[in-house]
Each structure stands twice: as structure tokens, then as C-alpha cells.
Design brief:
Chain lengths: 383, 383
């Protein structure tokens, strides 16, 4: 339970919010943003923040400096809301389907520069056909697979060249390549993570070079994931880096070593509703509806409660969830001090994965412990 | 892909809805409701449907016959929305916390009969104290643990008697007992399920009998879960049965043997956005944001796509999900016929767990294949 001791008024407001709710520590959030900006600035590569994590227009002024700045989205709903806000430069980073092209065209007509993603000749063909039929130009990135974790073509494939050429001939406009090192989330060591980051960059460089060798220029060479973004040492030839989770951070990022526990800016505030002393369990009113079912890298944990001293060795783990119930147990080898968690008291559950836990909530309760203020930031939802 | 062949207009509307979206087959939904009603009617025990699964006021007229009918909720937000609709008889089936009592009192003042749940003397004490201070009467059920899966006191415990007595002395009003056979979701055989159902009923009967022996009458003896509700053969002494998933059904219920695949009324409609023929994978635009991360009883599956013939032996499984991507592979031993799933085509992903998959969506697209009509049913969200 966080005590807002410096600000009694804030503590009162905090206690008046019904549990469970999503708590965002604004100063941590701002610090995470500043840290990534500083890192990117040293690398000399622009950041294209991924909106899919925070997914709130209220947070946008902190994520980007100006509405001209580039941003990444995971849904057209996000793109449309950002367009209404005035944003100009969007990358829609999920493979395009034919039925979504009309909405892309409407965004273009609103003056937004939106780039779509594809990795198959079928997609190239229907984008070209759509542009031909409608008399519009849709800019495309080709997804390159760097580690076998999602879609994408090989950087050394003939398909890459053929697709880029075909886009050039049609009205689909080839803009460059995009990579996402999905493997980075599963790295078990700092070395593996550095290797994943280098591999992502090297694969991007290879793809761009091969295209260049046949006279096709990549205006965009886009790489990224929070773990690799935190790990690049050289981004030569890369035009932009995408990352989303870095703004909030979570237990998965902590276990990868790219943030400290103290950097994690969000938690789910929950009330203790029961004790089972014989089984060593505490029941809280946050189940999967508030936490999500994301177990991150720990198959027995839906989030953790840090003890007041913040030591991980004394954490409680959410070991089981129902829709609106969570069950906490002490981390192995330790016992729960039930007096620290009386029925009716509150706990802050730190999530495994910021994106999936935040997605269970319609808004953030944003606490600024320096300014002593509280805000509500609404989240964008749907597709 | 469902073909609405009888209704070309419906097919057109279906194709105009952007993927991913939540599809509800209204006739299957109605049939599931009718089946449970008939079963309960034979048992002679009233049903108190759990609103937490469908969670839509638009669906309510089908779930209950009249606003006087009993209903179960998992959040106070549900209760408040049901109160606005005019419902009169609510059981809030999650352990009460002190901070929620004001909202309960406000519901009582609106003329609703709302019953709360508790399982500790601490909760009895703060409910009594609240009622004393505010001059109100809050009706309570005591949760009985029948299989060690969640909260609750033992049916044979002294705590049960002490809590019921203490509620009787204070202004907290003792109404009866409530049980939920959490174990039933994990049963591996029909026998185990029948055993779980009998145990739930027998434990409830024991609790009520023990209370009666000390002169405390249980007006409500509430049991339920969809698996046990489908399995009761005798509900003597039981005043009501709670169930939620039965209205939609899902793969977990199918694997438990309480529904057929054809009974499952919901699916997530998704577009094929890529093929990886060498890995035998299909990429779709439904990730965990549309499907949830619920793996049900299958650690390698976030939902299945039934082949047009509906045979489970030819299903595709969603073996991996990112935020907005899903990866399908053929069930073991078979190969994907990629020509059946061209890029741009649609698949219906049947969920492991109706509650958690539906919770990822703000609304249902409800298709009535008999009437040839489509509706949108909004879901209640938040707490």
C-alpha cells in the first residue's frame, strides 16, 4: 500500500477510488520516457513510440513532442483516434488485410501519412489493385523476419526483392522495411539480449542493402521492441526505433534486466477480502478481469505484491486468479505475515506485462506524488 | 467462415464488420438458455443466472423472464447497471470489502434487494459496524468452501456458526450460505464431475443443517457453477442454482462434456493476414487483445478454428498470440490446407473460456441466422 504521506489530500482521494483500479505513477512514467529519449539521442536515431502500450490520448503529449512526430499503432482504431488528435505520421504495424484498406484510405484523405505493413505477394497484389481501382497511393513497409517469432520474409529472400519491385510498379508505394525481434522477450541473459538487438539491426541492414543493390531505396528502416531498444549500441543504417513497454515497464522487462522494479510505473490496486491462514493464502478483489491472464515468464504468477521495503525476496505472488478473485501466496521459502495485510487493506499488484494488464482497464488513475495531483487518463479500446 | 447463405443481406453486413470482432449466434444462445431452464425446471430449483459471462443489458431479457427474477453479479458496476434497468434481486458473489458498503447501501436505497458475501469474522464485524453506524440492514450470505478452490469456511466449522450468530445479533442480516465448486472446472471425467456436483450439494445441505440445529434458518442455500449445474440430479434443500457460462458455452465446457462443439454460441471472427508454409502456420489479426490469454485446459492453445465440416480432428489451433497477432497451426498429425484459408479470408476462433474472451470486447455482434437479423449488444465493463 502506497502512502501518499506528503499529500494527505491525495491519500484521501486514493482511498475514495473503489478497487480494483489501475494506478499509474506519473513521475516514474516521465522518468522512463526521459531515459529512453536520452538513450535514443545518444544513438542518434529517432524513436517512433508504440501507442499500443499506454494507448491513451491523455498520455500522448508526454510520449511525443509534437503532433508531427512519428508514432506506431497496433489497430486502426488507435490510428483514427490519433488522426482526430492531429497526429500526422503513423505506422500501422500489423499485417494489412484487404478489408482494412478503405479505412486506411480515409485516413490518408484526412491528411495523415499512414504506412501499412505486409509480407506476402498476395498483400502486395491486393494493395496495388486497391490503389489502382481507387486512384490512391498507399505506402507500405515489408516485414522482415529476424528470429522466427512472427510474420515476415527473410532478409536474403527473393520474395523481398520481388515484393518491393512489384510495389514500385503498382500504386502501392514501397517505403522500406520493418523488423521486430520477438525473440528478445525470451532472452535469458544480457548477452543473449545484446545478441538479439545486434541481430535485429544487422538483419535490417542486410535487407536494406540487398534492396539498394537492385536500385530500391528504403526511406524507412524500422526496428524495435523495448528489450532491444534498451540494448542497441549501434543503429547505423536504421532510420527509426519502435518501442512501447518502456514507458510503463513491467516484471518481464525487469527479469530481462532492462529496468529496475522501482521503474515499473503501473500497478493494480486491490483490496484484501479474505485470509486462509492454514493454506497461507490471501484473497484479493483483483482477478483476471483486472490483472489479465498474462503470466509473463513465470508460469505460476499473475503479478506480484512488493513488501513495503520493495525487496523482491519478500514478495507475495498472485498464484491463482478467477474472474474477480486473486489468491496471493508468499514467494517460496517465506511465510505471509498476515498482520501486514489485514482484511480491508490495499495491495499494489505489479503486472507481468504492462500492455495486457492495462488493456483490462478503461482508464489509468494517474498519481503525481511530486505535484500532489491525481488525473484520470482514458484508454482507447476496440479495433 | 460462416456462410449466411440463407440471408445474402446478412452475409453482406457480416463482411462489412472489421475484424477482429465478437460473433454471437443468437439461436444457439437461446437454445442454451432453454436447455438450462428445462434442466432446472425438472430439478424444481430456481436458477439465478450469473451476469458475469454475457454481461450485457441487451441480453438480459433472454437471461431472465422478469425484472423480479434473481440474478448474480461479479461487480458492483454490474449491480448498478442492473438496478438502473429495474432488476430487484441481486447476489453480489465476490467477498465484500468495507469500502464497497456505501455503494451497497445506495443500491438498497434504490429499492434493490442485494445480498453480499463474506467468509470471515472481520467482514461480519465491519458489516455489523457499518449497519449500526448508518442505520441500515445489509443481507449477507456466508461462503462455504466445498473443495479448497477459493474462499469460504468449512461447512463443519465453528466459524460458520459464530459468524451467522454474530450477523443475527448485529444489523448485518444473515440470509444463508453460498458455495461454488471451483474444482468442477478441472474434472477429468463424467464421474468426477458428478462427484463434484454431489459434493457441492451435500456440503450446502450440511452447512444449512448445522445452522438449523442451532436455530438459524437459511433462507438462501445457493450453489453453482456451469459444470455442476449441468450435472445435478438432486437439489433437495437447495434454494437456487447459479451458472453463467452455460449461456454461451466454450471449449472448457466442451472438454468437460457439458456441451457439444455446436452449442458454443460465440467466436472471434478474424482475417488471415499471412501464411508461413515452411513452418505450417497461418497468421490472423486476432491476438490476445481479441482472444484473451486464457488457455483453458490446453497449455498450447488460445482457441480453435473448426474446419467447415465441424470435426474436431481437423481443427486449427491458435498456438501463439501477440497483442494483435495470432498464429494458427494444424492439430497434431495433420497438415494445413492453405488453399482453404487464403490471405484475406475469415476464420471463426472458438474460445477456451467464454467469460474471458468476451471480456476483451465492448460488444457482441449478434447474428440471428433464422430471422436473418443482426444486432449489437453492448457489454458492461469496469467495477
Amino acid at each position: 500500500m502506497i502512502k501518499h504521506t506528503e499529500h494527505p489530500d491525495l491519500e484521501k482521494k486514493y482511498n475514495a477510488i473503489g478497487t480494483p483500479f489501475l494506478y499509474l505513477d506519473k513521475q516514474k512514467f516521465l522518468s522512463n520516457l526521459a531515459q529512453m529519449r536520452s538513450h535514443m539521442s545518444k544513438l542518434g536515431t529517432p524513436l517512433r513510440p508504440h501507442f499500443k502500450t499506454v494507448k491513451s490520448l491523455d498520455a500522448l503529449p508526454y510520449l511525443i513532442d509534437s503532433i508531427e512526430d512519428p508514432i506506431t499503432v497496433s489497430t486502426l482504431e488507435e490510428a483514427e483516434q490519433l488522426a482526430s488528435y492531429g497526429c500526422k505520421d503513423i505506422l500501422y504495424a500489423v499485417g494489412i488485410s484487404k478489408e482494412k484498406l478503405l479505412r486506411v484510405e480515409l485516413l490518408l484523405k484526412r491528411g495523415m501519412s499512414i504506412v501499412v505493413l505486409l509480407d506476402s505477394m498476395e498483400q502486395v497484389d491486393f494493395v496495388n489493385a486497391y490503389c489502382q481501382e481507387r486512384g490512391c497511393v498507399i505506402s507500405c513497409l515489408i516485414e522482415i523476419d529476424c528470429d522466427g517469432h512472427r510474420g515476415g520474409v527473410s532478409a536474403d529472400s527473393e520474395a523481398l526483392i520481388a515484393m518491393a519491385k512489384s510495389l514500385g510498379k503498382g500504386l502501392g508505394n514501397f517505403k522500406g522495411v520493418m523488423l521486430h525481434a520477438g525473440e528478445s522477450y525470451h532472452c535469458k541473459s544480457r548477452e543473449a539480449l545484446n545478441q538479439s538487438a545486434s541481430n535485429e539491426v544487422a538483419t535490417a541492414q542486410l535487407a536494406a542493402k540487398r534492396l539498394e543493390s537492385v536500385g530500391i531505396y528504403c526511406e524507412i528502416v524500422s526496428v524495435g521492441s523495448t528489450p532491444t531498444a534498451c540494448s542497441y549500441t549501434n543503429t547505423s543504417g536504421i532510420t527509426e526505433v519502435r518501442a512501447g513497454v518502456y514507458s510503463l515497464f513491467d516484471l518481464v522487462m525487469h527479469r530481462l534486466g532492462v529496468c529496475t522494479l522501482n521503474d515499473i510505473a503501473i500497478s493494480v490496486v486491490s483490496s484484501v477480502i479474505g485470509h486462509n491462514k492454514s493454506r497461507g493464502q490471501i484473497f484479493v478483489d483483483a482477478g483476471w478481469m483486472a490483472l489479465s491472464l498474462d503470466k509473463g515468464h513465470d508460469e505460476q504468477c499473475y503479478g506480484v505484491v512488493l513488501q513495503p521495503n520493495g525487496q523482491e525476496s519478500q514478495i507475495l505472488k498472485v498464484v491463482q486468479v478467477n474472474q474477480e478473485h486473486g489468491i496471493l501466496e508468499a514467494a517460496s521459502g517465506s511465510e505471509i505475515d498476515f498482520e501486514c495485510f489485514p482484511i480491508g487493506s490495499r495491495v499494489h499488484i505489479v503486472p507481468n506485462h504492462a500492455c495486457s494488464t492495462s488493456a483490462m482497464h478503461s482508464k489509468y488513475y494517474v498519481f503525481d506524488l511530486v505535484e500532489g495531483q491525481i488525473e484520470q487518463w482514458q484508454r482507447v479500446s476496440g479495433w
